[in-house]
Amino acid sequence: MRISNGFLQIFGPLLSAAEKQWRYRARRHADENRRQEYLIKERIKWQKDKETGKKTGQKDRSSKAQRAQRKKWREAHERSKASQRLNSSPVSPDSTVSSPSGTSRQGELGRKVRRANKKKLTNDLAKLENKLKKAEQRVDKYKKRLKRLADANPSPRSKENKLVRNLSAENLRRTLLFHTVVADEVHNKYSQSKSQRDRQVISRIVTSKILKRYKLQKVAQEAFGFSRKRWRNLSRENVCRYERKRPRGVGVIIRSAVRSFFERDDVSRITTGKKQTVTRAKKKMQKRLLEDTMKNLHLKFLADHTQLCLSYSLFCSLRPYWVVRPTLADRETCMCKQHENLGFMAKKLHQLHVIDTSDIESLTERMACDTTRK
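Now predict its structure.
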């Protein structure tokens, strides 16, 4: 009841929008003609949406979407059946609340979930038992394999225990004699060796990790006559190799002399391109191209520096990194066709091992009688 503009108005219960829509649909479906018109209208609307691509049919959907839609249909069908059972169940005179006959949907769903979980747990348990059985079989296999390997390659401790168990005076005497003879022989060989290489080979044979494991280093030092420094750098593998002592470095005078020699204009020419640079260790230098081969330059260096004795390999290693051999891409000037073809021919003959050098000047000196006369 409400008073508005001096009049008393009486209304029924206030309805929500959802309740109004529900009552409207109930009145529409109660009339068969209105219901058929509504269904035809919805069918036409669905056909238009399908043509425009707004909606798709069940056949046009993916398999996953089809399964999801079928699940929705099943759930809707279950709800419809439950509603029908609820409406068709008899109402007792003592109670106004009706209950569906049979089991509830929630109870059936719960039992279904429990059965699925129980089945899953049973399968998981069977899989774990199978894995455990296979793991136990692998453990037994590796135990047997380890035992066979231990029997085939017994450790020094196992040999000692076996010798003690089968102890006899004759065997004990011969074993001690053998060990004493071997230790004296190694000691004599090591002390009589004059070269460092022979001493390294002998020491690497007996300075192994087995002696360190059984804490027999001091006993071995006294028996073989080795110093303690032999035990500092034990090799990871029992390989006998000789380590040559390499020089610690090259003198500053030789390094600076080689660098100055390569930067001479008669040895190399500097490039003028902006991009013709070489960078190493964040130090950019302008590229220089060699004018001759490294062997000829080595001979030229030795002729200019008679007081220095420098090998060819060290000479090549001391070459500055910005002094490189020229390539075809580095040539930016026109060159003589005849002379370049002659150089290419000499290089090809040298590759085919027809001649022993590709230097044109050397070939000219061999073929001509006197290169100084024109």
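The mean pLDDT is 79.
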